[in-house]
Amino acid sequence: MTPKNVVGYARVSTRDQAESGASLASQRQKIEAYATMHGLDLVEIIEDAGHSAKTLDRPGMTRMLKLVGRKAVDVVVVAKLDRITRSVRDLGELVELFKRSGVEFASVGDHIDTSTAAGRLVLNVMGSVSQWEREAIGERTSEALAVMRANGQRISRHPPYGYRDNGSGWVPNEAEQRGVALMVELRGSGLSLRAIAAELERQGIWSRGGRRLSPQLVANVLARQANGQE
Hints:
Layout: E1 5-12, H1 15-20, H2 22-37, E2 41-49, H3 59-69, E3 75-78, H4 81-84, H5 88-101, E4 104-107, E5 112-113, H6 117-128, H7 130-150, E6 163-165, E7 170-172, H8 174-188, H9 193-202, H10 215-226
Parallel strand pairs: 1-2, 1-3, 3-4
Antiparallel strand pairs: 4-5, 6-7
């Protein structure tokens, strides 16, 4: 039997992680070990260094998806699911793309392998909640605004960072949600508000006015996240 062609995918979100190389090296080792254990032909490991997983708009990801679309690869392997995406919506899109292209997917750390029935079930369930996630966010926002209006609270005409007004209410702004996700990720890594603002600037994430995101704005976004308002 001819070995299946495998492409590994590895990612780190910050420039410091990319420069140290430690996390990327660890991911490469796990992917290589998985390929060896299952008798797979590891063609290459594609890397995205210094890119958030909130969006699929990354150089390495784009190249990997082109290989999948051309059916030039049989299996895509990652060390952990959050290396390929942190967005349930994007995961749903990836699941559908892999299905259409007949490409298997494996996440070493999460024990997901779509060559097995159990692996396919887990990944399909995770992908199927993407629509629910979008609708739930919209419902929570609308309900919160309704309560504020009923209590006579003043509501800003301008949606907070991470949202946009579609004419009937506030809905997630995909571009800004990438910044929100990165703020949460960096804060979880122990970075200060000022360091987070600086990292956002390095990654080309700006305010609506094209200015650097301030530490205060970062603090406001993180506070809303902590209070479950986003």
